[in-house]
Inverse folding.
DNA sequence: TCTGGGGTCCTAGGACCC
DNA sequence: TCTGGGGTCCTAGGACCC
């Protein structure tokens, strides 16, 4: 029996956000359910039943309202602290099945299964699925193959398979399956590449695999080349088992309603800046450059569209909230123009690096720097214990009239005591 | 009326150098 | 008025992912 070297499984949670909501609400099992993005804007997770009704991924909520009403579809605003917590439990369980794991996103992970015998792979995948379901309540699909791109395809097929596991290792079926995979369903082929490939008569994964190397080299970039190699079974994208720290940190939100006043923009930039600063402090990082951006709605074509951003290079790397907010507000003032109805504002910290990589700046005052660090620590500790924004600064505002819309929130948070279910003992 | 948020990587082109 | 060749580094913007 042949034994392949690379054996990669992609484990993907089915309708992840919907599945998380179902854990705490049994009445929505086997019913059409959707979860909306921030601000209740777009559909970002759908149960199988909702997919059957024709509700598409990423569609604006207002466009599917009719279907929702007619079919009694249950709606949820997204609840990221819940999904994040459930995700951690799923990943922790997965780690038991392979020490080499790459957490690829909130709901999927690649596993190295090289140590499993070829003939046992399908069974092993099945055990993984059953364990995840039993321990966390989350249904998954598993695709196993010799490259990441092929395991993505296997996973795609597994989603519609009754067993929920597909193994493409040592099978004669690969090409037969690739012929059924539409080109836009190949990992790494997005909107632009799809357009280009179809124009050149490439409509399926199989057709892409069969393109001559010379053509690929001439017509695509390194990405395109890698995808083709991977379809052929040559691994080009390795498993990243070590999680690198982020290089950028962005916090942005659309407003619940349009905003025109600078004071309100100031409040939201401050709020986002505080959140971003907390994030990088949590990772023990500092930033060297901040970018503030604002824009009006890109969808209202008849009205004036305005989008702008301003970078500020910081003289000294920092993760000090107060200093960062000060700079952010300067940047905002620079790009703010009166008379526009703003839809979104955000802040990006870039060129992040670990605290301590750079030596102390000659011009910074050691004493006040130490005091500030202690203050930041105290703020983070308090907010961690009593909820985000328990301690804030006055600029962030209290009323936050511009805040996001969240009309269908499930109010479940496995990481917050306030939302614990109450058990009454008679 | 109502259209998400947060990332990474690649590439072309400009600035600058000798 | 004519105006080389080759290299590096940085950045903005695009494409992709979930």
């Amino acid at each position: 029996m042949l034994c392949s070297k690379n054996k990669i499984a992609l484990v993907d949670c089915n309708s992840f956000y919907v599945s998380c909501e179902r854990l705490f609400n049994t009445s929505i099992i086997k019913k059409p359910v959707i979860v909306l993005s921030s601000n209740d804007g777009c559909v970002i997770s759908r149960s199988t039943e909702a997919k059957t009704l024709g509700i598409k991924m990423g569609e604006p909520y207002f466009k599917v309202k009719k279907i929702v009403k007619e079919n009694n579809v249950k709606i949820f605003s997204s609840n990221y602290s819940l999904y994040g917590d459930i995700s951690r439990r799923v990943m922790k369980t997965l780690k038991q099945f392979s020490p080499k794991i790459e957490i690829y996103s909130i709901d999927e992970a690649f596993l190295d299964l090289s140590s499993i015998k070829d003939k046992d792979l399908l069974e092993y995948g099945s055990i993984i699925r059953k364990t995840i379901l039993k321990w966390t309540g989350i249904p998954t699909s598993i695709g196993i193959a010799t490259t990441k791109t092929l395991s993505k395809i296997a996973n795609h097929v597994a989603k519609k398979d009754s067993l929920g596991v597909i193994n493409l290792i040592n099978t004669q079926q690969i090409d037969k399956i690739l012929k059924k995979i539409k080109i836009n369903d190949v990992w790494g082929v997005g909107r632009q590449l799809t357009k280009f490939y179809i124009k050149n008569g490439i409509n399926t994964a199989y057709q892409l695999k069969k393109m001559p190397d010379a053509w690929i080299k001439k017509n695509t970039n390194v990405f395109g080349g890698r995808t083709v190699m991977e379809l052929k079974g040559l691994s080009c994208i390795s498993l990243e088992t070590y999680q690198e720290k982020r290089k950028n940190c962005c916090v942005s939100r659309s407003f619940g309603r349009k905003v025109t006043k600078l004071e309100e923009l100031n409040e939201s930039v401050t709020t986002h800046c505080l959140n971003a600063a907390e994030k990088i402090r949590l990772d023990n990082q500092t930033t060297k450059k901040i970018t503030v951006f604002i824009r009006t709605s890109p969808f209202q074509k008849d009205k004036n569209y305005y989008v702008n951003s301003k970078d500020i290079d910081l003289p000294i790397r920092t993760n000090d909230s107060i200093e960062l907010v000060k700079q952010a507000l300067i940047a905002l003032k620079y790009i703010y123009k009166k008379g526009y109805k703003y839809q979104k504002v955000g802040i990006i910290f870039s060129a992040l690096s670990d605290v301590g990589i750079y030596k102390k700046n000659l011009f910074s005052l050691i004493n006040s720097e130490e005091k500030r660090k202690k203050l930041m620590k105290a703020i983070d500790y308090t907010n961690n214990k009593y909820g985000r924004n328990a301690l804030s600064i006055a600029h962030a505002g209290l009323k936050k009239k511009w805040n996001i819309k969240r009309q269908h929130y499930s109010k479940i948070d496995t990481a917050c005591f306030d939302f614990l279910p109450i058990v009454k003992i008679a």
Observations:
- The radius of gyration of chain A is 25 Å.
- The longest strand of chain A covers residues 285-296.
